[in-house]
């Protein structure tokens, strides 16, 4: 027997209602803010992610699914959604239709990580990209969209953490101070931090091992230039005026190299070690880095699997998927075709119908309808058809009535609405 690959999941049954709930909410919220959906390939040229995410990041060094295709090209399953979206923006000359461009995506991503609750090797993200605006209004909008989305899911136990990691000028001075701070601690830090000290010093602040050194490290907000400081203050002021709750975290840097300026993360209080449910920020230099014109941009992404865990942890009721509303059972050769016609009439009126396609007696059909959690059962029998009626049965209470053929749709709809 074949089994699914480690770190992947089969999504079906009762779980599907959570996926529909989150994806439908994401589409509705992005609609309210004028975002259009984009769907990019799940695999791209490896160099796209090396250039964008950063050669020294954990994603590129340890986590990417990379292979050679039959043309000896290096291909990678996408580990995140921003780089493919920006590649599509450049390749398809989307700038020609005007800026800013608002895009969103929902889809699977792939990273070779140690599977655990809320962390899979194939996982799914919802994300937005706001391309073409350098205004603090854009930074605030991204955070507001994220906040409205989470509130629309019914979540309350989450915290938005924000910071500014400044521009290249700010970071140059800050990196010097950070190197000075860690210079006498190199023999004490973890192996990853030893490597990052010379390749990407900011990533030391993201270390989950040497947290005692991180908390006492210099704060980048003390080294922001006037422009970056002004942008950060303007963004916070807008969020304050809109009553968006957030916490400042001067050690927040994010794990991808393309970020600059405003960055943010969202953590949920009931998810333990894997508390991050989303994050984002500015990437003003990414489009130029990937071959386009210098274009200020920003965005965020959220993990759908972790959002589902959060929704369940908070006990948020999620509407059942409205399928299997009616099971149509039939008895006798001459009743089959009429039962099919009745099923199609119900479907024409938006009622979900499961039609019996097996050679079963009535008791077996009713048992199957019960297993499917059908709310109602229509029984179409030869004897009833001779009298121009069918039987409508409530599967929960056992109540049943006879309905004249012409009133099947109306009465069935009434019974569904009453439940």
Descriptive report:
One of its GO terms (molecular function) is histidine-tRNA ligase activity. Belongs to the class-II aminoacyl-tRNA synthetase family. It catalyses: tRNA(His) + L-histidine + ATP = L-histidyl-tRNA(His) + AMP + diphosphate + H(+). Its EC number is 6.1.1.21. It is an enzyme of class 6 (ligase). The chain has 419 residues and is α+β, with helices and mostly antiparallel strands. The protein folds into 2 domains: 13-167 and 225-313, BirA Bifunctional Protein, domain 2, CATH 3.30.930.10; 326-418, Anticodon-binding domain (Rossmann fold, 3-Layer(aba) Sandwich), CATH 3.40.50.800. It has helices at 16-32, 46-53, 58-63, 82-91, 136-152, 168-182, 191-199, 211-215, 226-241, 286-289, 304-313, 333-348, 362-371, 382-386, 408-418, and strands spanning 36-37, 43-45, 66-68, 74-77, 101-110, 122-131, 158-164, 247-248, 260-268, 276-282, 297-303, 326-331, 353-355, 376-381, 389-394, 400-404. Strands 1-5-6-11-10-9-7-8 form an 8-stranded mixed beta sheet. Strands 13-12-14-15-16 form a 5-stranded mixed beta sheet, sandwiched between helices. Strand 3 (66-68) and strand 4 form a beta hairpin. Helix 5 (136-152) runs parallel beside helix 9. The longest helix has 17 residues, at 16-32. The two termini are 42 Å apart. The model has no long low-confidence stretch (mean pLDDT 95).
